Amino acid sequence: MTTQNLNTQELITLGQEVTMHTFNRQETVLVKGQGPYVEDLDGQKYIDFISGIACNVLGHADQGFVEYISKQAGNLIHVSNLFWNENGIKLAEKLSQASNLDKTFFANSGTEANEAAIKLARKWGTESKGPDAYEIISMNQSFHGRTLASLTATGQEDMHTAFKPLPVGFKYVDFNDVDAIKKAVNKNTCAILLEVIQGEGGVNAITPEFMSAINTLQKQENVLVIVDEIQTGIGRTGTMFAFQQTTLDPDIITLAKGLGGGLPIGAVVAKAQVADHFKPGDHGTTFGGNPLATAAGNYILSAIDNQQLLKNVKVISAYIKDQVQSWQSPIIEEVRGQGFLIGLKVTKPVAQVIAAAADQGLLVTSAKDNVIRLLPPLNVTKDVVDQALAKLKTALESE
């Protein structure tokens, strides 16, 4: 069957026949976008506060971004990592300068970045502490990816059940439980892996007490701290990386999502004394760090700086929270998050609110704990926010 001239339902039916059922998709076929807006096959326009799940930091079809990556595509899209490419070197330098870390490995996704970080931490542990120092402690309700190791690092048992036996060497504690993290660390611990704000897990933020405990363990027990910045990084929380609003001193951070502005890219950025444990043959990738993806990353980081997007995130996110709290809605139990990673814990079924918002022309997504997640592009304006909040308020109040 050809897709030419198929209507929405025909396309969805075909999609169900020819693609694996790994996503619960909305009954919508999106065909184009501009700025914070997208349009479906039937001509319906939406304000997009999902942003490709925190990827489209400049919204859709940003003219400067499109021109930049189009020019790169006309010169060089892909070369093997048997050779250097200028864009990758420049992006690695920018990431070092922005994070105060030293060396980068480029991958294609957040899952791949976390997989690489797990391998790097284990190699550091066994070479620095001993052959049994390969255990990694992560947090309950965390999310780190869907490959076997990153899935095992994810502290959600319901995601593990169908894929056992899982890799060994992972332990879990409750997020922000100081006593639990202290008890869990031992001589075989190589790393603590965490998100500063758990995105998929419910938009849960780290506490100062938990940070302090991790800082102490890092020094006294000689363990690495890995901060998963897949969703929180690249300006989403109002600083380039979320850990920069904490007292944490990560040895490794992992990045993806916003780094490519919608193009697939992931990165592991680490201190030199850790990164240097990776030797040729220890890890690799065919597409990771290719000229097109790293060109996108260079443009995104420059745009965040040149367009003062971090300031925009701080100002507009405060406005969003103030507006939502002013509603004094009994449906909203709690407003969570930082910057443009905002969670609204609601009393109504979250799927019902998402559907009602879509009917109003607003796209939002969910997280655990019956939370609505708002992930606008970093350059969103107050006028667009006002439109979106009006639609959200109507959706929350709808029967």
Topology, element by element:
Layout: H1 8-18, E1 30-34, E2 37-40, E3 45-48, H2 51-54, H3 63-75, H4 86-99, E4 103-107, H5 110-128, E5 135-139, H6 148-153, H7 157-160, E6 170-173, H8 178-184, E7 189-194, E8 197-198, E9 204-205, H9 208-220, E10 224-228, E11 252-255, E12 266-270, H10 272-275, H11 291-306, H12 309-326, E13 332-338, E14 341-346, H13 350-360, E15 362-363, E16 365-367, E17 371-374, H14 382-397
Parallel strand pairs: 3-15, 5-6, 5-7, 7-10, 10-11
Antiparallel strand pairs: 1-2, 2-3, 4-12, 8-9, 11-12, 13-14, 14-17, 16-17
Task: Note down, in words, how this protein is organized.
This protein is α/β, with parallel strands linked by helices and 399 residues long. The chain contains 14 helices and 17 strands. The chain is globular and about 60 Å long. The two termini are 40 Å apart. The relative contact order is 0.15. The model has no long low-confidence stretch (mean pLDDT 97).
Provide a quick synopsis of the model.
39% of the residues lie in helices and 18% in strands.
Question: Which structural traits does this protein have?
Answer:
17 strands; alpha/beta; 14 helices
N→C terminal distance: 40 Å
Q: Nearest-angstrom radius of gyration?
A: 21 Å
- What's the overall average pLDDT, rounded? 97
Helix content: 25-40%
How would you sum up the major sheet?
7 strands, mixed
- Overall body shape: globular
Can you count the beta strands? Answer: 17
Which strand order do you get reading across the main beta sheet? 4-12-11-10-7-5-6
Number of helices: 14
Poorly predicted ranges? none
Q: What structural class do you assign from the helix and strand content?
A: alpha/beta
